[in-house]
Design goal:
The protein has twelve helices and no strands. The radius of gyration is 20 Å and the shape is globular. 42% of the residues are buried.
Length: 279
């Protein structure tokens, strides 16, 4: 297995994807931005279509389209000109429609979109790895330097505004970074499933801890375990990689949930026994 170059590249991609998804995903889940992130994900398909039509890298088109869309929704929600869920619904549909139209208008053979829709870690290039690596460093530095502000925005935006007068700027920057993270991880899980890659690991971590830093670290670990395990299973079973990774992460979430429930029952029973023994 490890004698193949694409396997090594896939595992490196899993490492970087886990780091970016762990950092960005914790913010998404904490701030309850899952629906917004889903809108950004599907809007990126419009950028992919425009990229193919213009003859540029589809990932570049997706990145630009996603950032503009994300900032647009954030701006509208701040100005309260339109309800956020309505703006996201419009964005979601517009992105998918734009992508389909421009792909149809692209001259020549229709491009293979399966790797963008459902992901294909096997097709990860060195360029993708470099981009994910740079994104990992940027997110680590950004969340490290502005940890408290991001923490306050995640859980209590009103208090965050008493701590910093640049809350809106931080929201715009963080949303842009999330949009980039989503686009760069599309190769791993695809437009359809990438949001799960960003939200399941933090939810696993939140079952175990309530500390923000620990949640981020546990999200990275859970993301890597699920991604590496799913990648290995798909390699030997010959089934789609992106779907297998998400399936594995869901199973991992279920296992942790069950183990914690049993742990609570055992501790409760032990405490009950001790009380009756003393009595």
């Amino acid at each position: 297995m490890f004698q193949y170059e694409f396997v090594i590249k896939g595992l490196l991609g899993a490492v970087f994807a886990s780091i970016t998804a762990g950092l960005a995903g914790t913010y998404i889940v904490s701030r309850r931005m899952v629906f917004l992130s889903g809108g950004i994900t599907h809007a990126s398909f419009g950028g992919i279509g425009i990229g193919y039509f213009a003859g540029i890298n589809p990932v570049v088109g997706a990145a630009v389209f996603s950032i503009i869309s994300a900032l647009g929704v954030e701006y509208l929600s701040v100005r309260q000109k339109i309800r956020e869920d309505s703006a996201i619904g419009i964005l979601w549909a517009f992105g998918m429609a734009t992508g389909i139209i421009f792909i149809y208008l692209t001259p020549g053979y229709s491009p293979n979109l399966l790797s963008y829709l459902f992901g294909s870690i096997l097709t990860v290039t060195y360029g993708d790895l470099i981009a994910l690596g740079i994104m990992s460093v940027i997110l680590i530095l950004y969340f490290g330097f502005f940890y408290r502000t991001i923490l306050y925005i995640s859980f209590d935006e009103v208090f965050a505004r008493t701590y910093s007068k640049y809350v809106n700027i931080f929201k715009y920057i963080t949303t842009s970074l999330i949009a980039l993270t989503i686009v760069l991880n599309i190769r791993m899980a695809g437009v359809v499933l990438v949001i799960s890659l960003l939200t399941i690991p933090p939810n696993i971590a939140m079952l175990v801890s309530r500390n923000y830093v620990r949640i981020v670290l546990l999200s990275v670990v859970a993301g890597f375990i699920g991604t590496a395990a799913g990648y290995t299973i798909s390699y030997f079973a010959g089934i789609p990689v992106g779907a297998t990774i998400i399936f594995t992460l869901v199973i991992l979430w279920g296992i942790v949930k069950i183990l914690l429930r049993f742990s609570v029952r055992i501790r409760s029973k032990s405490l009950y026994t001790k009380i009756h023994t003393v009595a």
